Backbone:
């Protein structure tokens, strides 16, 4: 029974890895077409993606700007909401938390269409900053959840202790609340970063074809057939995800963030 | 200055500083509230408002309050003289793909997640890194990977041919079955375009989500329950049926619903893997708003209908759960 279970997990991992492996292998092709296994393997495509092809370097820069901007903005908006929800539990904070999670809970294409109209009226359609704000709103739900989990892990008796020893609310916030929630805030930041990096459909509607992120650029090139350079992009993105989540697992408590039971190991 | 005076001064100062901090604490939440309300709600209101708008031939569209777009969606423009269900059929395909793919994902992810929660904390973290990485991987990359795997000149069909599996299928007489299912041409197996490829890719797309969503509930399940059942002589299948399944029924239904709603909006996988005659509402929304048709109001109408169907499904699922709870 135990071997059967291991076998099942291995099979799942295999299927999960299969398309990723194929894409990675295809990046090594020497020619212009995708073959698997790769023919005439070379690493020249990596140079094209990161250095010499302006189409890809611009797209990569845009992706990085949007991801970092959106992650920062999302954390800045989620923090006060999560803090209000934890400290007061007021109706307003509950409403805001609900609204903040709404865009993430509906089919993304509907929110993308709505944002397309929204920026069309406000004049941000096709501007990079509108893309940043759009992703921040779409993905705000993630830091909202991680920061809330972090706040819940604070022992309220620590706060009482701080208050008894004469700490004002601001001091208690700085010395008790903030240090304990930093790992969770950073995790939230990285979740947004990675998902924004890979998000496609909302960006598709708000960019209005005036700029392209890497995922958009790949979709645009989809009709003309694949090139190995696109596979390099895929490898880069997977590498970033693995690095980020490994960092979260290393310095944060990934099982707990994902909702595992604390008391068991 | 008397002591009383200085005391009252201090008191005034403290109330003043209190008032200042009080103001700061009221202004910030409300400012934030305004920003969040505008950014999260206005886009949806715009979609709803524009869905009642009217397209002008050869130009853009104007605000209006007409139900023409909704009529067109349900019965066609020429109703009542002529009725077409083209758009309803697209919605039907949206549902069909999403239902099958989400059920497939949840059913295969359940045993996996159960096994995952039995591992050590460290092993769980390693698996979670792998699963989260594949979860965050963009739809375009996933479609690209499966496209290479399933296309006729490379990947699986080529593998089938070179290993002689195609010939073996022909000899065994199963090839005809595959042809009947649209998964083969006269010479070899083919997966593009097919419902099989569409659903497979969509299911793959949400599989990591299924694991992540089931993980909290399953990891909180008390293992001593199954152990107790087993000491009392229950077989594995009995344990699964009588202990595990009932205790995870709620998250199971919840996860399936969330994945289903998420999949209703799938775009890239459907455009690449589905036959154009079997495209979904999401694809139609795109063609109307950004693509060839340039009919924003009708695209908005389809988006509203997609949103409403998603909400109806979520509410129904919720009610079903409540009803099951009450019994």
Residues:
């Amino acid at each position: 029974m135990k071997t059967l279970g291991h076998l099942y997990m291995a099979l799942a991992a295999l299927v999960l890895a299969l398309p990723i492996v194929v894409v990675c292998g295809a990046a090594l092709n020497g020619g212009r077409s995708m073959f698997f296994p790769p023919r005439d393997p070379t690493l020249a495509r990596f140079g094209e993606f990161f250095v010499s092809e302006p189409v890809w370097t611009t797209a990569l820069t845009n992706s990085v700007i949007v991801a970092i901007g959106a992650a920062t903005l999302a954390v800045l908006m989620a923090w006060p909401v999560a803090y209000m929800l934890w400290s007061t539990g007021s109706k307003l904070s509950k409403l805001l938390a609900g609204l903040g999670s709404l865009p993430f809970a509906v089919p993304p294409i509907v929110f993308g269409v709505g944002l397309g109209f929204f920026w069309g009226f406000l004049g941000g359609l096709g501007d990079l900053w509108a893309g940043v704000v759009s992703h921040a709103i779409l993905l705000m739900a993630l830091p909202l959840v991680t920061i809330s989990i972090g706040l819940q892990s604070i022992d309220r008796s620590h706060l009482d202790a701080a208050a008894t020893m004469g700490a004002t609310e601001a001091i208690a916030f700085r010395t008790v609340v903030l240090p304990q929630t930093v790992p969770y805030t950073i995790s939230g930041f990285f979740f947004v970063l990675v998902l924004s990096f890979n998000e496609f459909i909302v960006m598709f509607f708000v960019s209005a074809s005036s700029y392209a992120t890497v995922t958009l650029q790949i979709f645009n090139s989809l009709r003309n057939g694949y090139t190995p350079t696109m596979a390099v992009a895929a490898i880069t993105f997977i590498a970033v995800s693995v690095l980020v989540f490994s960092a979260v697992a290393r310095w944060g408590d990934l099982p707990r963030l994902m909702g595992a039971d604390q008391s068991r190991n | 200055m008397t002591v009383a005076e200085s005391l009252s001064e201090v008191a005034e100062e403290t109330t003043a500083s209190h008032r200042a901090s009080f103001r700061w604490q009221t202004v910030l939440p409300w400012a934030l509230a305004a920003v969040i309300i505008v950014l999260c709600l206005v886009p949806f209101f715009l979609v709803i408002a524009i869905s009642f708008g009217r397209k002008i031939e050869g130009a853009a569209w104007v605000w209006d309050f007409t139900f023409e777009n909704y009529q067109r969606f349900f019965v066609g423009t020429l109703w009542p003289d002529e009725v077409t269900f083209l758009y309803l059929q697209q919605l039907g395909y949206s549902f069909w793909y999403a239902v099958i793919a989400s059920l497939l994902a949840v059913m295969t992810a359940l045993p996996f997640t159960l096994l995952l929660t039995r591992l050590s904390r460290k092993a769980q973290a390693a698996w979670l890194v792998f699963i989260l990485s594949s979860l965050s991987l963009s739809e375009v990359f996933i479609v690209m990977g499966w496209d290479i795997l399933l296309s006729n000149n490379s990947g699986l069909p080529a593998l089938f041919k070179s290993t002689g599996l195609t010939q073996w299928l022909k000899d065994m007489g199963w090839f005809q079955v595959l042809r009947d299912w649209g998964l083969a041409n006269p010479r070899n197996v083919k997966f593009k375009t097919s419902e099989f490829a569409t659903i497979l890719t969509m299911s793959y797309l949400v599989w990591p989500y299924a694991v992540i969503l089931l993980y909290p509930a399953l990891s909180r399940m008390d293992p001593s329950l199954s152990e107790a059942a087993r000491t009392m002589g229950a077989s594995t299948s009995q344990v699964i049926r009588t202990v595990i399944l009932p205790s995870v029924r709620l998250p199971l239904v919840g996860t399936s619903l969330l994945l289903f709603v998420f999949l209703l909006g799938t775009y890239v996988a459907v455009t690449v893997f589905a036959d154009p005659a079997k495209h979904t509402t999401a694809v139609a929304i795109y063609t109307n708003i950004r693509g060839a048709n340039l009919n924003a109001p009708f695209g908005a109408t389809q988006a509203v209908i997609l949103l409403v169907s998603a909400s109806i499904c979520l509410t129904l699922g919720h009610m079903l759960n409540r009803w099951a709870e009450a019994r």
In short: The mean pLDDT of chain A is 83. Chain A touches chain B through 80 residues (CB under 8 Å).
